[in-house]
Specification:
Blueprint (H helix, E strand, L loop, with lengths): L5 E5 L4 H14 L3 E6 L3 H12 L4 E2 L3 E5 L9 E4 L4 H11 L3 E7 L10 H9 L3 E4 L8 E6 L5 E5 L6 H10 L6 E5 L7 H13 L4 E2 L5 E4 L9 E2 L4 H14 L2 E5 L12 H8 L2 E4 L3 E5 L8 E3 L7 H8 L6 E4 L11 H11 L3 E5 L2 E5 L17 H10 L21 H9 L11
Parallel strand pairs: 1-14, 2-13, 5-6, 9-10, 17-18
Antiparallel strand pairs: 2-4, 3-4, 6-8, 7-8, 10-12, 11-12, 14-16, 15-16, 18-20, 19-20
Helix pairs in contact: 1-2, 1-3, 1-6, 3-5, 4-5, 5-6, 7-8, 7-11, 9-11
Length: 427
Amino acid sequence: MTAPVTGAVVAPGSKSQTNRALLLAALSGGKCTVAGAPASRDTALMVGALRSLGVPVRGAGELIEVGAHDGWRGGTEVDVGLAGTVMRFVPPAAVLAAGPVRFDGDPRARERPMGPVLDGLRALGARVETHGIGDNLPFTLHGTGGLPGGEVVLDASGSSQFVSGLLLSGAAYDKGLTVHHDGRPVPSLPHIEMTVEMLRAAGVEVDDGEPNTWRVSAGPIAARDWTVEPDLSNASVYLAAAAITGGRVTVLGWPTASTQPGAAILGVLDQFGATVTPGPDGMTVTGPDRLRGVDVDLHDVGELAPTIAALAALADGPSRLRGIAHLRGHETDRLAALATELSALGADATETPDGLAIRPRPLHGRPDRLWGAYADHRMATAGALLGLVIPGVTVDDIGCTDKTIPDFPGRWAALVSDNSRSGDTGS
């Protein structure tokens, strides 16, 4: 067993809150600041997208200043990278520009679904021209300086971002916006709750009293300053390091209440047998002598699945991760990737229709095979986590963590303090 990991960490700001705040600041047309933003790739991509559309933005992390402007500019291109919050949040705002706006991104981004957003925009009066296969990237929006708005019905069972992306710009449409979801339950509903809360904080009237229906009234979006919380989903891997090694880790500045789905990691760690202790400085997790198997529905918190799967692979009993079929459409097919990488270490990990089944087996690193990150930040951090207790685990692309966590390798090394007792994070 590795030496227990102990220490305190400051988690970077929430990329989910940051990119919502940046877009709302730009939609306000006024001068705003966003404090606590992570200096990550997703943040930089949102800043770049807004600049492409004529919004003056200074900075790319920690403190970002959004300047006043008179409207959105067309005749431009937007690089979404692999950021779901850019590829799905910016197009509904870009229809307000006068002129065409072309969107494209990383190769994997071209495989991620966009149909519900683009179909929704068409139903609201936008003209969308696609250039690839179906309604995926790349595509061009032909803006006319505004959008009639109104009601739209869509299937958001693939991602809550389909709803949030439309809601964020709905107040800027002539008739406002009503979104009806028709399909299987929407995953990650707390992210939509975050969107609604932030819209209301910007003075927008939102009615979410009817299930699967959200109504945004037309009207101004207030120019205000935003302070971003620590990213609780990213912080989960640090707390998991305590659970997996029998150590004790505190995430400083953990909010007393939050709409972030990542807060759910606390209840799952408790089920694994860890001790969760809130305090005046933050949230502390103390690891158990052994991890228990868990049976958890992660439908609303699928982003935690890679971290939880890593813990489950080291538990002394079987685990089931349920409700996460939608993860097949994330940065990579996370269910297939987790099953493949855990099995390569000797785990009994199999896909189910809506998740993963993981049973106890001895695990071992392989000198002939690296842990695959699949250009997915959460796959990379899951590999780093397993490397704490399984000698020989090396992540093939730890650099992809810069998508949401600035300098994860440095932060991780500072926490574990002695790389000789942990797996190499790789390069």
